[in-house]
Amino acid sequence: MRQASQVALRALASATCASVLSTWVVSLAGRKATGSAASATNATSHWLWGERARRVHRVDVRHTVAGYAIHHASSFFWALFYEAWRERRPRSRAWPPALAVSAAAYLVDYHVVPRRLTPGFERHLGGPAMAATYAAFALGLTLAAALRSRVRAPGPHRPAAASNAGARRQARAP
């Protein structure tokens, strides 16, 4: 049980990085396509509010917050797979499973689930922007893993590392 909760905690961090980064890309692309950075995120709220959600271009709680919450929850779902994969292969590079999970998310989002449950971004974004969105998602998963490894990695500021280095220098001194 402890291992599952650790995977879930790591997935929460990974999902946050992936969700924020992909939402940033979606917002930039949505702004270019519609003049509003909120349009594509709002479109995700079609899960709750139907197709009229894609025509809302202003920031509001009903569409923007709901759209982001749906995207973040979906990101957490996919991050669980990513972190479970990384748990089984802890020494592997972080980016191959991130790309695989992002590709799987795209396939499920647009080729498995009914249109009613698609992310909705596609209502405003073209192919290159969609590719950038899923690439940003993969990058966010990878970034979370990289940040986590930096936090755990020993550094020169640690007393044990400094004392060992000093002892080696003294042993070599004539």
UniProtKB/TrEMBL annotation:
Membrane-spanning segments: 125-147
Q: Which UniProt keywords apply?
A: Membrane, Transmembrane, Transmembrane helix
Keyword check for Transmembrane helix, yes or no: yes
Q: Which domain of life is it from?
A: Bacteria
Q: Where is the composition biased (Low complexity)?
A: 158-168
Q: State the residue spans of region: Disordered.
A: 154-174
- Return the protein name: Uncharacterized protein
